[in-house]
Amino acid sequence: MLTAVFWVLAVVAVAAGIAVFTVDSMARATVALAVSFVAVGTALLLIDAGYLGVITILMMLMEMGIMAVFMIMYMMNPGGLMPMSMLHNKRGALAISIGAFVLLAAGALLTPWPQRRGEPPSDVTRALGEAVMGSKMLVMMSVSAVLFATMVSALVLATGRGRYDGDEAPAAEDAGGGA
Amino acid sequence: MTASPAWAVVPAAALVVVFAGAAAALDGVLDPAGRGRPMSGRLGRPLWETARLLRQRRRTTVAPDALLWRAGTAGPLVVALLMAVVVPVGGITVADPPVGLVWFNALDVALWLTVWAAGWGANSVYGLVSGYRFLSQALAYELPLMFALTAPAVAAGSLKIGQIVAAQDKTWFVVRMPAAFLVFLVAVAGFSLWGPLAYPAGRDLAGGVLAEPSGVDRLVLLAGRYALLTVGAGMSTALFLGGGAGPLLPGWLWSLLKTALVLAGLVAVRRAMPVLRADRVMRLAWLVVLPVTLLQLLVVSVLALGGS
Amino acid sequence: MNLQMFLLLAAALFAVGLFGALSQQAVVMVMMGLELMINALVVAGAAFWYFLTPQAPDGQVFVLVVLAAMTVEMAMGFAVTTLLFRAKDADMTDMAAELRG
Amino acid sequence: MVLTQLLGRWAARRPHVLAVAAPGATAVRLAVEVEMARIGAVAATAPSDADVLLAVGSPGDELRDAIDLVWSQLPGPRVRADIDDPAEAGAVLRQVVRQLSDPQRAAEPDRRDEWAERAPDTHGEDMQMPGGLMMADRGPDRDALALDVLTVPLGPVLPDWPSGLVMDLQVQGDVVQQARSRILSAATPPRPFWDAAGPGASRRHAAAHLDSLQRLLAVAGWPGMAWRVRRLRDSTLTDTPGPVLRGHLAAIGRRLNRSPTLRWATDGLGVLTAETADRLQVSGPAARAALEGGDVTARWRRWLTETDALLAGEPAGPGPRGRSVPGRPASAGLLAAADELAIGLDLAAARLVMASLDPDPDQLAAAPEPAEARS
């Protein structure tokens, strides 16, 4: 039963992934990517990775929401009213990616994976939380530093003029309203 | 907390629909435009509206993205029902997964895309703008909401909603974290496009996301708004108001009573103030509400450390 | 369910993402390809954790870090796109190539 | 069959009415609003929301075309009627509701959305666009990103919007870059309803301010309060004694002044300076508000103060919108000010500014249009 559910989710995830690059409309591509992530997140729920699965869904849906803003800002034809292909060097890319798939799949199937050691703890999420706050604290601290640096540099890159220099920056706070 | 068999989703969904209908009826009663008209006419408003919309044709627009549009309009109702799965009524819940709180949060984020798609799909300026209005409003309320959700989780030491309810056996969390409770309610209004946060469904844009859909599409979208309010009220009961705790009456009844009370408050707030524009909400959220929520979280964490 | 099934899914997602990243012109679309490849990493990481070493939390922590990386990639991607768009009015990778030097 | 009848009866208990008023039809519009409240009808927010389309007054050709287009957008079951006489508003509305509950209406023969399927005229040899739609063009903006510019007309059919007003906007996202307003003409040159002179003038002007205020509150998304002001407006036009009206007005004024959210929505928005008011020949409450801050808040407070004074018996000034001179009615300056102040605002703010200036279409449709506006 669970296996069947997994295969359905897997097919949805991959099909939605393919749809991202085959549909005409950027809006649909964004939603397709979101669907792919939701399918993957749900698949993670099947293997007791509840927190990871749900957090994947949460973060990716949020990201796709933001993506929708940028896509309409910058893309020509985001609604796909004009059928057009945005691909270039399609054949080469296809060959490379099929090659990659064959290699990876062969590796996955042929490698003699070691036996499973132990059982998942009864409360997986708690174990994760304790690891993050305990033994893996250093990792998380560096991750948060990276996140902070990203926020700052992304802002610096994206803001054309300094917020605080020159003629009064018009209404910094209504950036959201003016999307 | 007892998890229920799979068929429990049916009564849960029915409960959501009944409460949503009651909320709509209350909205009709509170509407000053109905004053002087017989009470039966005001209470029956959800019925008249439903009949109207069932009779009405669905319409199309010029070059819509029909798939995204229909999916987007159905989205809020679907999200509300999926949220209802983890909302306990007394000691009973459809499911009580170990990450129930994150489940709720992930679903409210799912509204980002669905409401946006509902606006985008119609290919009309009003819809498009309202979709973006929702995103900008969501950016304002989402982070405070996340921290407001974190507070009860920290206090209870669990993301499991059953345990959060159980941790309130001595004092309700609303006493310990009033700011988080308030922020949560505002966020519920935000993702339900309700009251002062109905900006994406604003009258100034001919109804915003509601500008184009008609017939069943409109019915589902409107029902989704009320259902989201309902589920939000139910969740606030579980997270902050002690769930089914209370004297004399059985737990499920207490849960329903508290939910009804919160829901009535949410419905009433719509009459009390105008709609806020997203830029104002954004400023308030980031400059005032977010620091307050973080402070609240700090207090709760310190209390939790002291308690353990 | 077993490890091989999850790894197959991961391989398929990775291949699709690779195809997108290689074949797309728009910067935003290339980013979508990268996202899909990272998505594959999430699947693989979680599967390794569950099927090989469920006792140790490292696998889960790895997936969390990957998710964080995904966010970073997205944020920087959007920032760079905005920059390119303003500087050269380009949202295509071919056009961005001219920016070199 | 029984079910269809029941549905029809229920549906007609709360019909959604889209009343499109022509300039100069203020008296009929007010009568329609009163009758709608009486039968429990709701003002529709959009064509998609409407069961009934009412053409109020005598629209000119362009407005007539707009009403026809809106009619084709009503989802149906739908009914359409014209009202040109305040006295017949009640009878027409009741008849319309009877027709609406008729089960035959529901079975309108498989109507299709012709308006959505037909391709609008494409201009010249431009590239053929899908669905006949034009692609957005790009233009400079405040973040130097040169994003898409959309040309969007606001009106003439929009809830809580001056009758027959069309505001042609160029927007990027929802930020207005250019605005140009015009009034669609009426079939017959209208006599401005609010600009009464003589003994009843004070009451009439007070009601004019209240009409503006209710529109502003509705645009601000406070329908309950707008409803109260509308009721007060209607009783101001009857012979309700002044002190009673002033009591209601004071209660409303307290609520408005004490609402931090309303202040928050309108403070600092659309500042009309005294110089600009002078340049555009704005007189009346908007010009007087310019001395008190000049923002939207100052303007709605001005309405409250002046309404109270008028109800207290102060003699009426030259007109509720200010002094009109031949060829340039007072509202012309207000309309020009709305266009100027809208630039750089988002749509919601631009609508608030328009509502706070509230040019009177009756005056504008009466005036001969300047030649340049025709081109």
UniProtKB/TrEMBL annotation, chain A:
One of its GO terms (molecular function) is quinone binding. It is an enzyme of class 7 (translocase). It catalyses: a quinone + NADH + 5 H(+)(in) = a quinol + NAD(+) + 4 H(+)(out). It is found in: Cell membrane. Keywords: Cell membrane, Membrane, NAD, Quinone, Transmembrane, Transmembrane helix. Its EC number is 7.1.1.-. The keyword Hydrolase does not apply. Signal peptide: none annotated. One of its GO terms (cellular component) is plasma membrane. Belongs to the complex I subunit 6 family. NDH-1 shuttles electrons from NADH, via FMN and iron-sulfur (Fe-S) centers, to quinones in the respiratory chain. Couples the redox reaction to proton translocation (for every two electrons transferred, four hydrogen ions are translocated across the cytoplasmic membrane), and thus conserves the redox energy in a proton gradient. This is NADH-quinone oxidoreductase subunit J. It comes from Pseudosporangium ferrugineum.
UniProtKB/TrEMBL annotation, chain B:
One of its GO terms (molecular function) is NADH dehydrogenase activity. Its main location: membrane. The chain crosses the membrane at residues 6-30, 67-89, 109-129, 141-159, 179-199, 252-272, 284-305. One of its GO terms (biological process) is aerobic respiration. One of its GO terms (cellular component) is plasma membrane. Pfam families: NADHdh (PF00146). This is NADH dehydrogenase subunit H.
UniProtKB/TrEMBL annotation, chain C:
Pfam families: Oxidored_q2. Its EC number is 7.1.1.-. GO terms for cellular component: plasma membrane. Its main location: membrane. It is a multi-pass membrane protein. It comes from the Bacteria. The keyword NAD applies. NDH-1 is composed of 14 different subunits. Subunits NuoA, H, J, K, L, M, N constitute the membrane sector of the complex. Belongs to the complex I subunit 4L family. NDH-1 shuttles electrons from NADH, via FMN and iron-sulfur (Fe-S) centers, to quinones in the respiratory chain. The immediate electron acceptor for the enzyme in this species is believed to be a menaquinone. Couples the redox reaction to proton translocation (for every two electrons transferred, four hydrogen ions are translocated across the cytoplasmic membrane), and thus conserves the redox energy in a proton gradient. This is NADH-quinone oxidoreductase subunit K. It comes from Pseudosporangium ferrugineum.
TrEMBL record, chain D:
Residues 105-126 have a biased composition (Basic and acidic residues). This is Uncharacterized protein. Residues 100-130 are annotated as: Disordered. It comes from Pseudosporangium ferrugineum.
